[in-house]
Structures
1.
Amino acid sequence: MVQFANEPINQKLQFNYLEQFPTSLLDIEAHNLSSHLKAPTLFYIKGHQQQPLFITVLLHGNEITGWQAIQKFLRKYQDTPLPRSILLFVGNIDAAKVNVRTLSNQLDYNRAWPQTENPHAPEAILMQSVYEKVKNFVPFASIDIHNNTGNNPFYGCVNELDDNFLYLASLFSRTIIFFKRPKGVQSLALSKLCPAVTIECGRVGNETAIEKTVHFLEAVLKLSSFPKHPVRDQDIDLIQTQAIIKLPKEASFSFDGSDADFCFRQDLDHLNFSSLAPGTSLGKLGGAQNHHLIIHPGKDGANANGYFDYKEGQICLMKPAISAMLTLDPNAIRSDCLGYLMNRIKRD
Ligand SMILES: [Zn+2]
């Protein structure tokens, strides 16, 4: 019988801390984890080098590639010691049970980390305590693993332009997004402790994504230290979030041409990671044509005005931008956003 050391947070939310990883979990699918773990769980798995790599999976319950990759990875190392210790946090098992990103009564597990705009939410208190625990271990690096719903390549996200952060991200993909908002994401919080990256593994169910993530984890775990030489500009495509596109709560939307406040083009997510010229249309306004997109600045000081024009009901981009993470998924649109507008940046 495995003994859990409970870390009491409050009456509602607590995480378990376990100084081993039961092999029985290697065959448990994400949606069944809540029958095996009583709460979000932090596992310490000892490896050759002591300073641990912190890995988080299932902060979004329906993004299961990270969990599948961890299982595959740990299976490989069942009879061999890990090159480096791992701290693994398995997050929103309740949302995973019903295959959703976040339950309707929860704060998003990836908007709840230190610096969150909702620091008093039970989820924020939970993440603060996980963060404190991880901080005590002085982590070597941090990796948060996600999927997304639109048509996107594999890419990494960093919140600092430091060479170690970029090197870490480049081990996964040459496409790297730099952002400072939204607040409360894991990598932004962990950036205060160690090089941190969020990796986006495309859609759920892609075997290549699992394989690629396993290789990435292995590459990072085998790093004895970060290289002394700087990351070369030609080795990465560095882009930065300028604006976050949201829809008014009360507005309706469609992607199939049916009438709605926003009638988006059917292939909207195929615009992801392409450079869009001014004049590109995302679709047209329908209904009473009385709604406009809500554009939030994607970074401090960014000018979120003037991105769109609605002449003759066309939703028309007015500035050059790289669109990313545009999604057709109604849940993602309602609970998060329609997508992001970015531009290419150079380091100083
Ligand atoms: Zn996610």
2.
Amino acid sequence: MARAAGSTNPPFGTRSRQFRALVVHSQPEALGELAELLGGLDLHVETARTPVEALNKLRQGPAHVIVAHHVTGTFDGVAFLEASIAHAPEALRIAVVASSDEASELDHRPATEGAIIRLVARASERSRLVGLVGEGIKLVALVESQRELVRKLQLEHQKLQRRETLLDTVVKERTKELEESYGKLKIANRQALFGLAEAIEAKDPYTKGHCGRVAAYSLVLAREVGYPVEGLETLEFGAFLHDIGKIGIKDAVLLKPGPLDEVEWVHMREHPMKGYDIASKIEMLHPIMPAVRNHHERWDGSGYPDGMVAEHIPLVARIVAIADAVDAMITDRPYKSALPLDECEAVLRKTAGKMYDPALVEVFVSRHLGRLYHDEYDALPYDDGYEASAS
Ligand SMILES: [Fe+2]
């Protein structure tokens, strides 16, 4: 549909999708003819009679196609086209000159910038003008659609970046919450386990503090022999609760001040399996079952309840066995006095390879780990990290 020139047309820039053309010619008839030609390409065509008027229209909004008449000396359309670059830098610029000679003359005129196509104002050139403008508009449409695509992609990219930032924030918050919950759970677990240990010691007050000391000796020995760091906490709890089965031992046997008879020993020796049964019913205690069940196994296979031999005994149980024996030897009990540390170490060495893992005994004795509760030994860290070491 042709949209010919006229003052009733809206100013440039008010139509969103239509491409715009500006035609400048000093003669009204020729101006109307050019406007009609371009209007046939479904362009919105603006017209001007002078370069000044044309520049004013360009200031209202850029044109995609600018066609200017040129007559050397009287109507400098080429100068106007050069001036239009500042207002419509990407427009297709066409100069319509009066004759071939004039077109040749213009070739010698120094160009400023931007290509200006020159056409001679005769009938045979009109179809060329229409073809040029048609192709130019296709190119403009292609460039605009590419720009629109790039703009949409940039918007999507910005949206993705915002979502990524939001997601990152949410993930950090959730991680922090989970870490806090995990920390609280660990504290609650530890408190629950301490409660269990207290229940054991409440039954047998003569062993007050024994569970904690066995845990501490076990930790020190485990660290000295390169026990996996990630398993230290479980080892600590296992050592702490190794005698949990004593909850199921009759008071008459557990608290008997004198030596046990054979029947009583049989009952007392049930405590590892009683502890194992208790631990097996509490999922949180499953990892510590080897320490509970096998801490009375002996290196030579004479222990109980499974009669395991040497390295078939779980390492944690071998460690706890030594820690348990050491604390029993070097603390006062109602029925015996505490042994000095050097005598305790002598007993350990003597029984290594029979009762205890000889390699573990060697480390424990040679590094005097039994000094743990003496002044010359640093306090054992009792939290995550296990960084401090024996002095
Ligand atoms: Fe025990």
